[in-house]
Amino acid sequence: xxxxxxxxxxxxxxxxxxxxxxxxxxxAVLVPCCLLSLAFAWGVGKLGPAWLVLPAFMVVIxxxxxxxxxxxxxxxxxxxxPQQCVIxxxxxxxxxxxxxxxxxxxxPDGAELRIVVPGEQDKKLQPGPATVLRHPVMRPxxxxxxxxxxxxxxxxxxxxxxxxxxxxxxRARRVMRQA
Length: 179
Hints:
The protein is α+β, with helices and mostly antiparallel strands. 54% of the residues lie in helices and 20% in strands. It has a 5-stranded antiparallel beta sheet. α1 (2-20) runs parallel beside α3 (53-79), α2 (26-47) crosses α3 and α3 crosses α4 (150-178). The protein is elongated and about 70 Å long.
């Protein structure tokens, strides 16, 4: 049971820390949280039959990786304050795989923000007014480009819950047969 709790704590930490660390440092959150989330898979294997480790691995590794970014976006939808700001300049950020765009934003309170939006040309906003999601602790996001995957954000916890139910039911079945 402690392994399961440690793995779940690592997944939750990936969501929270992924929202706080500066852009470009997500890997510093992703690697340790993915490694620690393996404890969940190991714990499920100890709680239920050993073959349940494989589906648990298939949930926690990609699930933790996706929740580092999508978890941040979902948290910002829930907790952030929308603010009308002005995009003053947009720069292309060249990259080997995925293009990104740096949007320089000025807000009414005088804050100068640099918000990076990864994606193709359709993700690029033109200079002008824009709604920015701001939170005192988390990185700001452009509201128009805050697209997160509900399938992952809700699917990973549902899959984890189903794995725990399966492991517990199979363990109970084994215990009842032994009795």
